[in-house]
Amino acid sequence: MEVVNALGRRKSAVARIFVSEGTGKITINKRDLAEYFPSSILQYVVKQPLNKLGVAEKYDIKVNLCGGGFTGQSQALRLAIARALVKINAEDKPALRAEGFMTRDPRAVERKKPGRPKARRRFQFSKR
């Protein structure tokens, strides 16, 4: 199997991944998964597509991850992994789509409007 690459995005986080056959090692920005995401919840989010298909120990994944916060980064990585698994085997797509792993979450920060302190917040009203 040759190296398969994929891209995942969430908010302002971008994950570029390279999947090859291996022992289940996930390397993010030259650091181990447990070192990069110390939270077990975020590690679980990243591994969800692999665990769903039961291939967690089958592939080595190298990741370039930039932008956003840790939650956005973990969800961007989950999308990239799901897309790469579909490139490897197209028959897995319905199972991953049913879990919602194939859908890019379009929500992002709303822009700040002029004359306001934030996007929707108004200055305090003063009657006098």
Task: Describe the protein's architecture and organization.
- The chain has one domain (4-99): Ribosomal Protein S5, domain 2.
- The mean pLDDT is 93.
- It starts with a strand and ends in a 29-residue tail after the last helix.
- Helices cover 34% and strands 23% of the residues.
- The protein has 4 helices and 5 strands, in the order E-E-E-E-H-H-E-H-H.
- By secondary structure, the chain is of the alpha+beta class.
- Strands 1-2-5-3-4 form a 5-stranded mixed β-sheet.
- It is elongated, with a radius of gyration of 18 Å.
Any idea of the CATH topology? Ribosomal Protein S5, domain 2
On the 0 to 100 scale, the average pLDDT is 93
Query: What Rg do the Cα atoms give?
Result: 18 Å
Shape: elongated
| Oligomer type | single chain
CATH class: Alpha Beta
Percent in strands = 15-25%
CATH architecture label: 2-Layer Sandwich
Short description:
This protein has 128 residues and is of the alpha+beta class. It has helices spanning 33-36, 40-53, 70-88, 93-99, and strands at residues 4-10, 13-21, 26-28, 31-32, 59-66.
